[in-house]
Automatic annotation (TrEMBL), chain A:
Example GO biological process: cellular respiration
GO molecular function, one term: oxidoreductase activity, acting on the aldehyde or oxo group of donors, iron-sulfur protein as acceptor
Record domain Thiamine pyrophosphate enzyme TPP-binding: where: 56-203
UniProt keyword terms in alphabetical order: Oxidoreductase
Protein name: 2-oxoglutarate/2-oxoacid ferredoxin oxidoreductase beta subunit
Family matches, as PANTHER family: 2-OXOGLUTARATE OXIDOREDUCTASE SUBUNIT KORB, 2-OXOGLUTARATE OXIDOREDUCTASE SUBUNIT KORB-RELATED
Broadest EC class assigned to this enzyme: oxidoreductase
Keyword Oxidoreductase carried by entry: yes
UniProtKB/TrEMBL annotation, chain B:
Pfam families for the chain: POR (PF01558), POR_N (PF01855)
PANTHER family, per the entry: 2-OXOGLUTARATE OXIDOREDUCTASE SUBUNIT KORA (PTHR32154:SF20), PYRUVATE-FLAVODOXIN OXIDOREDUCTASE-RELATED (PTHR32154)
Top EC class of this enzyme: oxidoreductase
Record domain Pyruvate/ketoisovalerate oxidoreductase catalytic: where: 25-213
Domain (Pyruvate flavodoxin/ferredoxin oxidoreductase pyrimidine binding): residue spans on this chain: 262-429
Species for this entry: Lacipirellula parvula
Domain of life: Bacteria
EC number: 1.2.7.-
Transmembrane feature ranges: none
Protein name as annotated: 2-oxoglutarate/2-oxoacid ferredoxin oxidoreductase gamma subunit
Keywords: Oxidoreductase
Keyword Isomerase: no
An example Gene Ontology molecular-function term: oxidoreductase activity, acting on the aldehyde or oxo group of donors
GO BP annotation list: response to oxidative stress
Length: 341, 617
């Protein structure tokens, strides 16, 4: 990633466009927007080198609210738009803003491929477990049985879990945060931006109009310490109000244990975000509140790998070195030719 | 001189058409290509028609697996691969039965006799052996034990029998090369280059080629050799080129001349894939080829590259173009330049993937939601693809609009001589991007110039930050707007902008009298057949002219006037009447159609017949 230090120090307000923000009052999107505006000035990337690309959905209105370059594209295709942009302009910092419907339903294919190519872009998926813009149909992350306008008898498709998918695509940076956990969210966005390669961040976002409270268990002051677990590299997986609980591996399976009674921190699973082997990250991505686990937030995985945008341009350099700068006349005149007098 | 070989007479011909056909594993495309190149190098004008089976490997010897390649070569200007065949090479019974009807009476028929065994005949549905039952008596038939003779020729090179049989196409080529008095040199060079790393294969192929040639020279059966003298083409340096290659070269030239990197986002589909293959081979021209996960990703990635300020292209065929429709709408709405190449094939749906059709004109003109006009142009032949690509880019960049360039399977895979241009002859497209500002004023992304084109501000430029997208925009500011009158204004403006392209393109010309009894109006790949047919009828004194359209949207400004100058209008198309409908709707003329959807191009003969029929009524 190119970090340049501009002379004038930018403030969050410098990143705000002059457009009225039109999300419903109380929508979790506001908080994500605020954190983004806070983080961007700390990255040292000038506004004109920052580009937001989105698909369609409430969350995808995001680029209009940023005073950077931006494209509000078509449903689900933001990762593909970003791919073309980043390939020709690796010097730009490209953010992809998407929703659970946009990114996982219609755009699932593109999301998967942008991640596996490890293009140097930052993908932020706002997960509200519902279709907001189209007014309340269930989404690929809605839980089984959820009653919505389109599922009056309850959803019967198994939900997708965004981080499991990302890790399945060998994502090199995978993280989760929560709209209301603003410090954590800011930190996570910053780390995503600094990661060279595709970073994928899932943000639990509340749609207070069509799916209010979907993430309350993870946000509520009283419960969140028991229902979430903040990942820290090199540290044991501890959680609970008094950090009295932890995650231990029992064979291949994680289990929740109470510390004491012969169980110490050393018996717990230690988090290694830099592990080349993604299986443990995958295991973490499968821990669910409804199965009695705390849901991890923070960085699941952060490893280095070749980046598509660098590779595609590297091939051009290599070809140019080997064959010289392309010469049109030589190309036209290649092969068998003849002259008519 | 070989005393055994009596010197046979060489008969001069103006032109000839040869078709090689056999099983898809028999190397007929290679035989045809080599014969074409050799004829082109001998100075003939050439036109080719490769015809592939849809199945990659149908069972050997079956009719579904027959692959053919037709070459028309001439000492005159020609525009089509020929209606009927003067010499047919059939490597097996299935090839014979599926191709014989195109061989003219008295034509030369070269047959691999060894494949006419019981199984082969059965697979082709022959009840009796046509080599023996007299049914081929009105042709100049030459059954040759090709398999056997070829095996003998390559004996001693250490090949397996299977490998030896793979050389058989070179034997067939050698024989046809002799028949048409062609030099073996170019093919010998090709063999050396292609099989240089496997000397035994190179030697075997050389031996096969020579064996076929000598067979022609020595055997008593074939008495006449033919010679087609060089054509009188306009002076210049030439090479033979296929449509898809010419198109790729045109894109490279357009990028270079406008100082842009070329980005191609594509998803493989017949018959467009070769554009991707060709460009992927030229990365040293600063070309980025992106094989996307699907057609929508292909076009939207190109939109991303266009937003970034580079020359962006996507290439596909019917079903893929259908998928791209939503992306085209976005490009129209965001007013970004983009080339969308549609290499038409038989449809609908997967249709006839390896066969040609012209039925996607309406898809190109209207296949999107909303009022979504964009310029559409069509290439008329393989070499013209080079120019058409540049013209499409010129319009896209000058008007800040996506442009559809239509070609078809027949143009894409066909080949013809291409006069190699000098770079100085090509027209560069000048592109400007707004300069950085630091005045703090908001940039106005939809402020328009005299062509109604908006500024192409490139990310990374200080002071020009702006957001675009698919939601309707307020004119000038580019802010999202649901204002009813603004929407009307923007719809009108986008339409007017595309209409203004008519001021930027040449007036339509006609070939023939400026008024008269009949005007033939054509577009795209039927150019050659229509031009040839019209010339023929003109030659016989018919009052007919030909008007070939390159620009399909907007139509040339004088087209209505031209149409009014003729008593009858004929619109031949490889569809059920799409251009005809457009002309009738636009100009209220009573155009007549001649329509065919058989996966095949028009023959000159059928068009001549139609024109003469109309002239006589
Ligand atoms: C091709 C296409 N299909 C459907 C739609 C309608 N549509 C708009 S947004 C949306 C779902 C968005 O859901 P999500 O990504 O979860 O975003 P949210 O609005 O919840 O932020 C749909 C189905 C569309 N705009 N385009
Ligand atoms: S519908 Fe939901 S997601 Fe959309 S703006 Fe309103 S609260 Fe936010």
């Amino acid at each position: 990633m190119s970090i340049e230090t501009p002379l004038p120090v930018l403030k969050p307000t410098d990143f705000a466009s002059d457009q009225d923000v039109r999300w419903c009052p109380g929508c979790g999107d506001y908080s994500i927007l605020a954190q983004m505006k806070k983080v961007l000035p700390t990255l040292g990337v000038p506004r004109e080198k920052t580009v937001f690309i989105s698909g369609i959905g409430c969350s995808s209105r995001f680029p209009y609210y940023m005073n950077t370059y931006g494209v509000h594209s078509i449903h689900g295709r933001a990762p593909a738009v970003a791919t073309g942009l980043k390939c020709v302009r690796p010097d730009l910092q490209v953010w992809v803003i998407t929703g659970d419907g946009d990114g996982l339903s219609i755009g699932g294919n593109h999301l998967m491929h942008a991640i596996r190519r490890n293009l140097d872009i930052n993908i932020v998926l706002f997960n509200n477990r519902i279709y907001g813009l189209t007014k309340g149909q269930y989404s690929p992350t809605s839980p089984l049985g959820q009653k919505t306008k389109s599922t009056p008898m309850g959803a019967i498709d198994n939900p997708l879990h965004p981080l499991s998918i990302a890790i399945g695509c060998e994502a090199t940076f995978v993280a989760r945060s929560i709209d209301t956990n603003i410090n954590h969210l800011g930190e996570t966005l910053k780390r995503a931006a600094e990661h060279p390669g595709a970073s994928f961040v899932e943000v639990y976002q509340n749609c207070n109009v069509f799916n209010d409270g979907a993430w309350d268990y993870a946000k509520d002051r009283d419960t969140k310490l028991d229902t979430t677990l903040e990942l820290q590299h090199g540290k044991p997986l501890l959680f609970g109000k008094l950090r009295e609980k932890g995650i231990r591996l029992n064979g291949m399976n994680p289990e929740v244990v109470e510390l004491g009674k012969g169980i110490t921190e050393d018996d717990l699973l230690f988090h290694d975000e830099r592990s080349p082997e993604p299986s443990l990250a995958y295991l973490l991505s499968r821990m669910r509140y409804e199965d009695g686990f705390p849901e991890p937030i923070g960085v699941f995985r952060c490893v280095d790998a070749p980046r598509y945008d660098a590779l595609i341009n590297g091939q051009i350099e290599e070809a140019t070195q080997k064959r010289g700068q392309g010469d049109l006349e030589a190309l036209f005149n290649s092969g068998d030719t003849w002259t008519v007098e | 001189m070989d005393t055994l070989a009596p010197h046979k007479p060489i008969a001069p011909l103006d032109d000839a058409t040869v078709r090689f056909c056999g099983d898809s594993g028999d190397g007929m495309q290679l035989a045809g290509t080599q014969f074409t190149n050799t004829s082109a190098l001998a100075g003939n004008d050439v036109a080719t028609f490769p015809d592939f089976p849809a199945e990659i490997r149908a069972p050997r010897g079956t009719k579904a697996g027959v692959s053919g390649f037709q070459v028309h070569f001439s000492s005159n200007d020609i525009y089509t691969p020929g209606d009927t065949v003067d010499a047919l090479v059939a490597m097996n019974p299935a090839a014979l039965v599926t191709n014989l009807e195109d061989l003219r009476d008295g034509g030369v028929l070269i047959i691999n006799k060894d494949s006419f065994d019981k199984k082969g005949l059965e697979q082709a549905g022959y009840k009796s052996n046509p080599l023996e039952d007299g049914s081929l008596s009105h042709y100049s038939m030459h059954p040759v034990e090709m398999t056997k003779l070829n095996r003998l020729a390559v004996e001693g090179f250490g090949l397996t029998q299977k490998e030896a049989d793979l050389c058989r196409n070179f034997f067939a080529m050698g024989l046809v090369f002799w028949l048409y008095d062609r030099s073996l040199e170019p093919t010998l060079r090709f063999i050396a280059q292609k099989f240089g790393k496997r000397p035994e294969v190179a030697e075997a192929n050389t031996a096969s080629l020579r064996a076929g040639y000598h067979y022609g020279e020595t055997v008593e059966a074939i008495n006449t050799q033919y010679h087609v003298a060089a054509a009188k083409l306009p002076p210049g340096k030439y090479r033979n080129i296929m449509g898809n290659t010419a198109l790729a070269y045109g894109l490279l030239a357009a990028a270079k001349l406008s100082g842009k990197r070329l980005f191609l986002g594509a998803y493989p589909i017949t018959p467009a894939s070769d554009i991707l293959h060709e460009l992927a081979n030229h990365k040293n021209f600063d070309v980025l080829t992106f094989q996307a996960e699907d057609e929508i990703a292909a076009i939207t990635s190109a939109i991303g590259a266009s937003f970034a300020g580079e020359m962006a292209v996507t290439a596909s065929s019917g079903p893929g173009i259908a998928l791209k429709a939503e992306g085209m709408g976005l490009a129209v709405m965001t007013e970004l330049p983009l080339l969308i190449i549609s290499v038409q094939r038989g449809g609908p749906s997967t249709g006839l993937p390896t066969k040609t059709e012209q039925a996607d004109l309406m898809q190109a003109l209207y296949g999107r939601n909303g009022e979504c006009p964009l310029p559409v142009i069509a290439a008329s032949g393989p070499a013209d693809c080079f120019h058409a690509a540049q013209e499409a880019w010129r319009i896209a960049a000058r008007f800040m609009t996506p442009v559809i360039l239509l070609t078809d399977g027949y143009i894409a895979n066909g080949s013809e001589p291409w006069r190699i241009p000098q770079l100085s002859e090509l027209r560069p497209t000048e592109i400007t991007h707004p300069a950085p500002t630091d005045n703090g004023d908001a940039f106005l992304p939809y402020l328009r110039n005299e062509r109604l084109a908006r500024p192409w501000a490139v990310p990374g430029t200080p002071g020009l930050m702006h957001r675009i997208g698919g939601l309707e925009k307020q004119d000038v500011t580019g802010n999202v707007s649901y204002d009813p009158l603004n929407h009307q204004h923007m719809v009108d403006t986008r339409a007017r902008k595309v209409a203004l392209v008519a001021d930027d393109i040449p007036m339509q010309t006609v070939d023939g009298p400026a008024s008269g009894d009949l005007l033939v109006v054509s577009w795209g790949g039927t150019y050659g057949a229509c031009a040839t047919a019209v010339h023929k009828v003109q030659h016989h004194g018919g009052s007919v002219a030909h008007c070939h359209l390159r620009y399909l949207n907007p139509l040339p400004k004088n087209l209505g006037e031209i149409l009014g100058n003729y008593k009858q209008i004929l619109v031949p198309e490889l569809n059920l009447g799409q251009l005809r409908m457009l002309l009738r709707a636009t100009y209220l003329v009573d155009a007549i159609g001649h329509n065919k959807v058989q996966g095949k191009p028009f023959s000159v003969g059928e068009l001549v017949e139609k024109i003469e029929h109309l002239l006589s009524t």
